[in-house]
Specification:
Helices cover about 55% and strands about 5% of the residues. It contains five helices and three strands. α3 runs antiparallel to α4 and α4 packs antiparallel against α5.
Length: about 170
Protein backbone atom coordinates (compact mmCIF):
# COMPACT_ATOMS: atom_id res chain seq x y z
CA UNK A 1 0.00 0.00 0.00
CA UNK A 2 1.17 3.50 -0.81
CA UNK A 3 2.10 5.77 2.13
CA UNK A 4 0.27 8.68 0.54
CA UNK A 5 -3.07 7.24 1.67
CA UNK A 6 -2.01 6.60 5.27
CA UNK A 7 -3.28 9.25 7.67
CA UNK A 8 -0.79 9.91 10.42
CA UNK A 9 -1.32 11.75 13.71
CA UNK A 10 0.53 14.76 12.32
CA UNK A 11 -1.88 14.85 9.38
CA UNK A 12 -4.85 14.96 11.74
CA UNK A 13 -3.19 17.79 13.67
CA UNK A 14 -2.72 19.75 10.43
CA UNK A 15 -6.36 19.20 9.43
CA UNK A 16 -7.49 20.40 12.85
CA UNK A 17 -5.31 23.52 12.56
CA UNK A 18 -6.75 24.45 9.16
CA UNK A 19 -10.28 23.84 10.44
CA UNK A 20 -9.70 26.03 13.51
CA UNK A 21 -8.29 28.78 11.27
CA UNK A 22 -11.37 28.52 9.04
CA UNK A 23 -13.70 28.90 12.04
CA UNK A 24 -11.74 31.81 13.55
CA UNK A 25 -11.72 33.58 10.19
CA UNK A 26 -15.47 33.03 10.12
CA UNK A 27 -15.91 34.83 13.45
CA UNK A 28 -14.37 37.98 12.00
CA UNK A 29 -15.97 37.46 8.60
CA UNK A 30 -19.44 37.14 10.10
CA UNK A 31 -19.18 40.64 11.55
CA UNK A 32 -18.03 42.02 8.19
CA UNK A 33 -20.83 40.14 6.41
CA UNK A 34 -23.49 41.56 8.74
CA UNK A 35 -22.25 45.06 7.93
CA UNK A 36 -22.53 44.34 4.18
CA UNK A 37 -18.82 45.00 3.65
CA UNK A 38 -16.90 44.24 0.43
CA UNK A 39 -15.26 41.15 1.95
CA UNK A 40 -17.42 39.03 4.20
CA UNK A 41 -17.73 35.61 5.75
CA UNK A 42 -16.38 33.41 2.95
CA UNK A 43 -13.44 35.69 2.13
CA UNK A 44 -12.28 35.88 5.74
CA UNK A 45 -12.68 32.13 6.24
CA UNK A 46 -10.69 31.34 3.11
CA UNK A 47 -7.91 33.84 3.89
CA UNK A 48 -7.48 32.34 7.37
CA UNK A 49 -7.50 28.75 6.08
CA UNK A 50 -5.12 29.59 3.24
CA UNK A 51 -2.71 31.33 5.59
CA UNK A 52 -2.79 28.30 7.88
CA UNK A 53 -2.01 26.04 4.92
CA UNK A 54 0.95 28.19 3.88
CA UNK A 55 2.25 28.18 7.45
CA UNK A 56 1.91 24.41 7.70
CA UNK A 57 3.62 23.99 4.32
CA UNK A 58 6.49 26.19 5.48
CA UNK A 59 7.03 23.95 8.51
CA UNK A 60 6.51 20.49 7.01
CA UNK A 61 7.07 21.04 3.30
CA UNK A 62 10.78 21.79 3.34
CA UNK A 63 13.89 20.03 4.53
CA UNK A 64 14.88 21.97 7.65
CA UNK A 65 18.54 20.96 7.23
CA UNK A 66 19.03 22.75 3.91
CA UNK A 67 18.90 26.31 2.64
CA UNK A 68 15.36 25.63 1.45
CA UNK A 69 14.15 26.11 4.99
CA UNK A 70 13.50 29.82 5.25
CA UNK A 71 10.22 29.91 7.11
CA UNK A 72 10.16 33.70 7.31
CA UNK A 73 9.92 34.00 3.53
CA UNK A 74 6.61 32.17 3.45
CA UNK A 75 5.20 34.43 6.16
CA UNK A 76 6.45 37.55 4.38
CA UNK A 77 4.91 36.47 1.10
CA UNK A 78 1.57 35.67 2.73
CA UNK A 79 1.54 39.19 4.17
CA UNK A 80 2.35 40.67 0.74
CA UNK A 81 -0.31 38.64 -1.03
CA UNK A 82 -2.95 39.48 1.54
CA UNK A 83 -1.97 43.15 1.22
CA UNK A 84 -2.96 43.06 -2.45
CA UNK A 85 -6.21 41.31 -1.59
CA UNK A 86 -7.01 43.90 1.07
CA UNK A 87 -6.12 46.77 -1.24
CA UNK A 88 -8.94 45.65 -3.52
CA UNK A 89 -11.45 46.50 -0.79
CA UNK A 90 -10.29 50.11 -0.31
CA UNK A 91 -12.10 52.77 -2.32
CA UNK A 92 -11.73 56.54 -2.26
CA UNK A 93 -14.67 58.75 -3.13
CA UNK A 94 -13.65 62.38 -2.80
CA UNK A 95 -12.64 62.87 0.81
CA UNK A 96 -14.23 59.60 1.94
CA UNK A 97 -12.27 56.37 2.21
CA UNK A 98 -14.24 53.14 2.35
CA UNK A 99 -13.07 49.63 3.07
CA UNK A 100 -10.03 50.40 5.19
CA UNK A 101 -11.33 48.47 8.20
CA UNK A 102 -12.28 45.54 5.97
CA UNK A 103 -8.79 45.54 4.44
CA UNK A 104 -7.32 45.55 7.93
CA UNK A 105 -9.59 42.72 9.04
CA UNK A 106 -8.42 40.63 6.07
CA UNK A 107 -4.83 41.35 7.08
CA UNK A 108 -5.36 40.35 10.71
CA UNK A 109 -7.33 37.24 9.71
CA UNK A 110 -4.29 36.17 7.69
CA UNK A 111 -2.20 36.50 10.84
CA UNK A 112 -4.79 34.49 12.77
CA UNK A 113 -4.55 31.76 10.14
CA UNK A 114 -0.76 31.82 10.25
CA UNK A 115 -0.75 31.60 14.05
CA UNK A 116 -3.12 28.64 13.91
CA UNK A 117 -1.07 26.91 11.22
CA UNK A 118 2.07 27.34 13.31
CA UNK A 119 0.32 25.75 16.29
CA UNK A 120 -0.09 28.98 18.28
CA UNK A 121 -3.82 28.38 18.69
CA UNK A 122 -4.24 30.21 22.01
CA UNK A 123 -2.69 33.35 20.55
CA UNK A 124 -4.92 32.97 17.49
CA UNK A 125 -8.00 32.69 19.74
CA UNK A 126 -6.95 35.76 21.71
CA UNK A 127 -6.28 37.75 18.52
CA UNK A 128 -9.69 36.72 17.17
CA UNK A 129 -11.35 37.92 20.36
CA UNK A 130 -9.49 41.26 20.25
CA UNK A 131 -10.39 41.72 16.59
CA UNK A 132 -14.06 40.98 17.26
CA UNK A 133 -13.97 43.37 20.23
CA UNK A 134 -12.58 46.21 18.09
CA UNK A 135 -15.00 45.58 15.22
CA UNK A 136 -18.12 45.22 17.38
CA UNK A 137 -17.60 47.02 20.69
CA UNK A 138 -15.06 49.77 19.98
CA UNK A 139 -16.99 50.79 16.86
CA UNK A 140 -19.85 51.93 19.08
CA UNK A 141 -17.64 54.45 20.86
CA UNK A 142 -16.18 56.07 17.76
CA UNK A 143 -16.43 59.86 18.18
CA UNK A 144 -18.47 61.62 15.52
CA UNK A 145 -19.68 58.33 14.09
CA UNK A 146 -22.26 58.78 11.41
CA UNK A 147 -25.42 56.71 11.56
CA UNK A 148 -25.28 55.94 7.83
CA UNK A 149 -22.92 52.99 8.14
CA UNK A 150 -20.11 54.54 10.12
CA UNK A 151 -17.96 55.47 7.15
CA UNK A 152 -15.15 57.84 8.01
CA UNK A 153 -14.08 60.90 6.11
CA UNK A 154 -10.61 62.27 5.67
CA UNK A 155 -9.96 65.31 7.83
CA UNK A 156 -10.01 68.52 5.88
CA UNK A 157 -6.68 70.30 6.19
CA UNK A 158 -6.54 74.06 6.53
CA UNK A 159 -3.76 74.90 4.15
CA UNK A 160 -1.59 77.92 4.72
CA UNK A 161 -1.60 80.35 1.85
CA UNK A 162 1.81 80.54 0.15
CA UNK A 163 3.76 83.71 0.89
CA UNK A 164 4.09 86.40 -1.77
CA UNK A 165 7.21 88.43 -2.37
CA UNK A 166 5.41 91.42 -0.92
CA UNK A 167 4.68 89.66 2.36
CA UNK A 168 7.15 90.49 5.10
CA UNK A 169 8.18 88.30 7.94
CA UNK A 170 7.80 89.79 11.37
CA UNK A 171 9.71 88.77 14.47
Amino acid sequence: MNDIFVIRDIDIAMIIRVTIALVLGGVVGFERERGDRPAGLRTHMLVAAGSACFSIASIYGFDLQTKEADLARVAANVVSGVGFLGAGTILRDGSTIRGLTTATSIWIVASIGMLTGLGLVWLALYTTFLTWFVLVVVKRFKPGRRRSGGRSSLPQANLVKPANKEDKLED
